[in-house]
Write a structure and sequence with these properties.
Elements: E1 10-23, E2 29-32, H1 43-51, E3 56-62, H2 79-88, E4 92-98, H3 118-135, E5 139-144, H4 163-180, E6 185-191, H5 199-209, E7 215-221, H6 225-238, E8 248-255, E9 260-261, H7 269-272, E10 276-277, H8 287-303, E11 307-311, H9 329-341, H10 357-365, E12 371-377, E13 382-388, E14 392-399, E15 408-415, E16 420-429, E17 435-436, E18 441-442, E19 446-452, E20 456-462, E21 466-474
Parallel strand pairs: 1-15, 2-11, 3-4, 4-5, 5-6, 6-7, 7-8, 8-11
Antiparallel strand pairs: 1-12, 9-10, 12-13, 13-14, 14-21, 15-20, 16-19, 16-21, 17-18
């Protein structure tokens, strides 16, 4: 045993089962999928996501599905099996519209957002919506575009940072969606950050004109949980005083920051940002990624979004030939680097379907219970959330410092318990990889019966960059 537990600092944690703070709706924190190739989710990934019981998943509908290859002809050969796999997860879908059919966009140019025939574009969108929202009730939210402030750099073929341009695109597209399926929720624009245009411009226009805007969406990649919560706070401020029903808040992509090593030999600040991204397979299994994910979800849950979508559920490979009809050579080269050469490895599942530590963050959070209860700690690096169900009390701890995390012992005090025999179970995501692949499941680090009085004290080891669930279950009701 290499750890010297006697010399570790103690972090006092108090969980009060009698102090109910309201309903806990962690199902609002779900996952999204990449937009890299047309392949449907593998069965292992479908089964793994289904076990998490997602209610809503966010996806892209990209041009590589080739749903409108020539004037007057639709082809659902590629998109149908892709959508069928999503349906098998049990979730409904937020679909980001990112198609750019060559018949309507014969020139490959990310700055061209206006189709050569607006009426034909509307018919294409109506057919898409009819197929997946009416004939097959899969898609309930239609997101108009993706990262229009980034264009090809964001993996999609439209660059529309000017609010006036995006608003025209939004109008002609959302109107076609609603004509085909009046019950749809429409929104966007999935910008790289909540402050970025065209998001503020879209909100201002819809606020003044009464144009339907059911949700706004944005993205963020940061190691700091506070930054993810800040986006939600900013969005609420942006929508303050919105007439009628306030648009929902959707963080349709989020994750940790990209691994980037600056060029320390550069002579000026701008050159220093021309460093190198770093990606090796070992990094995909670093528990710090799970700790960042857990702490960020807890921070966002406190801020109160309507939905968040971890990017991504499954990593994919990039095949350039699928993109040639709508992406520039430079854009494809960027995708080649990001997905084949130095991939981000952000998925809950890897390209070959191998489970990653972040998957188990969602698995642990699903075990908390429907009622949030009070949980406090004096150590700011221990991010925590506690809940109770009819027959159990549980708390999740994420030991994370955005700079450098440090190990400690968490000294838990459970108050206002119902006295009686219980089963204590502890799960931990750390360097040890205590999980099975099929099905993906964590193995407990400790499980034992005990007698719990009204106040129970318990200590658990919290390694740096770890995620822990401590559960007290009524004996005989299952762990």
């Amino acid at each position: 045993m290499s750890q010297n537990f006697l010399s570790m600092p103690l972090a006092d944690v108090v969980v009060d089962a009698g102090a109910v703070e309201g309903p806990l709706e962690l199902w609002r924190h779900s996952v999204g999928l990449t937009a890299v190739n047309h392949l449907p989710l593998p069965d292992r990934v479908v089964a793994g996501l289904h076990r998490l019981e997602p209610r809503l998943i966010r996806v892209f509908i990209q041009e590589f599905f080739h749903v409108y290859p020539e004037h007057g002809r639709f082809d659902w050969t590629l998109l149908d099996p892709y959508m069928a796999a999503l349906e098998r997860t049990g979730a409904k879908v937020v679909a980001a519209i990112a198609i750019k059919p060559p018949p309507l966009f014969p020139t490959v140019d990310q700055a061209i957002w206006q189709p050569n025939d607006v009426d034909e574009w509307r018919r294409v969108i109506a057919a898409l919506v009819s197929r997946y929202s009416v004939d097959r009730r899969i898609v309930t939210y239609w997101e108009i575009g993706n990262e229009p402030d980034a264009g090809e750099a964001g993996g999609c073929p439209y660059l529309m940072p000017d609010p006036a341009a995006y608003i025209q695109y939004y109008q002609m597209t959302s109107e076609a969606v609603l004509d085909a399926f009046p019950g749809a929720k429409v929104g966007g624009p999935a910008t790289c950050w909540v402050d970025n245009e065209p998001l503020p411009g879209l909100v201002a226009y819809c606020r003044e004109s009464g144009t339907q805007l059911d949700f706004i969406s944005w993205h963020r990649y940061s190691d700091n949980p506070r930054v993810h919560a800040l986006g939600i706070e900013k969005a609420k401020a942006l929508l303050a005083g919105y007439p009628g029903t306030r648009p929902e808040l959707l963080v349709t992509e989020w994750n940790k920051s990209f691994e980037f090593v600056p060029d320390i030999s550069a002579n000026d600040a701008s050159a220093a940002m021309t460093g190198r991204t770093v990606s090796v397979e070992d990094m995909a299994f670093a528990p710090r990624r799970a700790a960042i994910a857990a702490a960020s979800i807890l921070a966002m849950a406190k801020a109160g979004p309507d939905w968040t979508f971890y990017f991504a559920g499954w990593d994919m490979a990039f095949y350039p030939e699928e993109w040639r009809s709508f992406f520039s050579a430079a854009g494809s080269a960027n995708m080649q680097q990001h997905w084949n050469e130095v991939p981000h490895r952000f998925g809950l599942f890897g390209v070959s379907g191998e489970v990653r530590p972040q998957y188990f963050v969602y698995q642990l959070l699903s075990r908390l219970g429907p009622e949030q209860i009070s949980a406090t700690c004096g150590n700011p690096d221990l991010h925590l959330l506690a809940a109770r169900g009819e027959q159990h009390v549980a708390v999740v701890l994420a030991n994370l410092n955005p700079s450098t995390s440090h190990e400690c012992l968490a000294a838990l005090t459970f108050r206002h318990l119902t006295p009686g025999p219980k089963v204590l179970t502890v799960y931990r995501i750390d360097e040890q990889r205590r999980w099975t692949q099929d099905p993906p499941a964590l193995r407990p680090v400790e499980q034992r019966p005990l007698y719990a009085p009204e106040t129970l004290r318990y200590q658990v080891y919290a390694p740096a960059d770890s995620v822990i669930l401590v559960s007290l279950q009524e004996e005989g009701t299952g762990a």
